[in-house]
Amino acid sequence: DFPLLLAFLGKRAIPGIERVNADSYERVVGSADAPAWIRVSASATRPELQLDIDGADPSAIPDIVRRVRRMFDLDANLQAVHAAFEDDPLLQRAIALHPGLRVPCGWEGFELAVRAVLGQQISVAGATTLARRLVDTWGTQRADTATPHPGLDRAFPSPERLRDAPLESIGLPRTRAATLRALSAAVTEGRLSFEAGQTLDAFVERATALPGIGAWTAQYIAMRALALPDAFPAGDLVLQQRLAPPGLARLGERATEARSQAWRPWRAYAVLHLWHLPPDIARTEAA
Q: Fewer CB within 10 Å of terminal CB in the chain, N or C?
């Protein structure tokens, strides 16, 4: 469901780094002094995505392809996912609405983790505004501004640049600024990484050891930065509301976690389906 993924990414796009149109995703990638640009769109004739790359060193192309495949979850086995949900009427209804829904991941782990912290307890629009301010203040202007891709000329700030930055100056609460500095220090010092091959429990344990990063944030990062298919932020308000029975505004976190056990090992897909399920349909199905 490429249009649905574009809508999801479009609400979170950071100006200067990425741009989402009605039919494509564009982004500047690579180092600050050797930028390249990508555009991902749907093929007009085949059930696949088309990747256009401009300015990249040929040796970088395999990594770009790998990242795009992960970002759009192109290696997902949706038949296995849907089979795991076949006994749940609510998820069956969600799948009927969006049978091609996949889990959108981030381009780079640290960037996604920062964005997750920025989004704590505020709206998606508010988090995107803070991300734009962060990039405007501490992001790097890329070397070649005379680009055929105007408006895509910034690099996301590195953990080294943010670990001691006065982040409160862009409107962050003091505690959240401290969390971002602690996250940046942990990545810089190698105490936290976003490399493939980590287990969900091990990553969550390391992430939640940092001040200000709770289970919701760690699970969200695991889902969208590490592409771990069983990540499940049980403390998420929308999930709790979608799963609540009639007469109850929301489930508690423990009850939400318990409900999710039947969906292992594909709970991240349940998250996306429930997020995109209209509330009236969820209530009707629950009844």
A: C
Tokens representing residue 93 in the block: 């209804």
In tens, the pLDDT along 242-271 reads 999 888 999 999 999 999 999 999 999 999
Whether the predicted model's global pTM rises above the 0.90 cut: yes
Nearest to 119 by CA among 130, 127, 128, 111: 127
Residue appearing with tokens 């992430």 = 207
CA–CA separation, 55 and 76 (whole Å): 29
Token reading at 12: 């979170």
Number of Cβ within a 10 Å radius of residue 234: 22
Residue type, 283: R
Query: Burial of 254 by CB count in 10 Å (0-12 exposed, 13-18 middle, 19+ buried)?
Result: exposed
